[in-house]
Amino acid sequence: MPRPKREEQFANSEICIVHAVQRCVRRAFLAGVDRESGKDYSFRKEWIRRRMEALASVFGIDVLSYAIMSNHLHVILRNRPDVVASWSDAEVAIRWLRVFPGRRMEEHLAEPTEHEVKTLAGNAERIAEIRQRMSDISWFMRSLAEPISRMANKQDECTGRFWEGRFKAQRIVDEAGLLACSMYVDLNPVRAAMASDPETAPHTSAFDRIQAGHGKRIDSAAFDLKAVPTEEAAKQIRETPVDELRVKQKAKKRNPTGKRIRRDAWLAPLTLSPEKLSTDAELNRDGLRASDKGFLHVSIRDYLRLLRWTAKQGVAEASEKLPKSLATTLSQIGIDASMWRDLVWEWQRYFGKSICVGSPAAMRQDAERCGKHHYSGQAAASACFT
Q1: pTM score above 0.70
Q2: What digits encode the pLDDT tens for the residues 13-66?
Q3: Torsion sign, CA atoms 99, 20, 191, 198
Q4: Among the residues of 105-156, which ranges form H helices?
Q5: How far apart are CA 120 and CA 100, in angstroms?
Q6: Residue 27 has what DSSP assignment?
Q7: How many CB atoms lie within 10 A of CB 227?
Q8: What residues contact 335, with CB distance under 8 A and at least 6 apart?
Q9: Residue 1 has pLDDT above 60, yes or no
Q10: Distance in angstroms (rounded) separating the CA atoms of residues 34 and 59
Q11: How high does pLDDT run on average in the chain?
């Protein structure tokens, strides 16, 4: 069967959570050690991570979890039209121009000026269209994939696709499904035998959160959300040699704002705040991410404890008992603790062909919303949920 239309799975006008998977063309190791040539392209994983971090600073979309593998990418996204609605037209304009600066004769002219921002902000029809795109998961994924393709093709001196066709999307419809999916994503390198535990699996959200807990800081890849004064831009172009402008632009790309941040500061916080209302947008004021809203009723401590325990259960014969406190946490969310290991490690058996993730009851409800009787995987997953 063909994949469903995006509009059937999610809309940019409503908040929803989506697990997206983007694979390299022919599943080649274009971000790892190439099996044919033996070349190591693992450094491209950092390209992808930094691009995601940059996009998280301008789009109305929260990055909840991610894992960058040698031949594919997993990311869990939550679109935030409520956050985008709070931005002024000028804010929408500068954010859009940072990602899509338009046609430029030279790369060093890609800095948006105050005049360009004001002109775009004054076009009400265009701003309305852009505002919708800023909370659109498909536009986020497009903005992530295309630049990586261009950079890789330029490096390899070739043309053609880097990624397969459109990304695979699974709508996550309840917290039980979200917790299981987040664990599945964070443990991808462990499942692929690329790492022995989450602490040794870089380019995952779990690794970033663990490192941040140890005080690790990195150069921020967030876009600078300040427009260049028009007169200053014109003066630089007139008086500064082109080569010097290119060097400055290249240096600014490494750290556009000059900030050093916690390694996980661009990711959505893991734990939902009990003091905040569910309708509170919780806007981020640091220019690093769309919002400060968490996504699970689980503390970061308990999440990492459960993640480490689950990572050790890779061997089918593993029999280490799940700590009682963690089993209670799973039961409260609606997951059968005795099936937890199976749910995460055998994820593809339950949800590999499904376009929806969650408990059977939540999946059934979402199917009815879409005019369907049920989703693939709904019956199989019933054994894992209470």
Answers
A1: yes
A2: 899 999 999 999 988 898 999 887 889 999 999 999 999 999 999 999 999 999
A3: positive
A4: 114-121, 124-133, 137-156
A5: 12
A6: G
A7: 20
A8: 176, 179, 180, 343, 384, 385, 386
A9: no
A10: 33
A11: 91
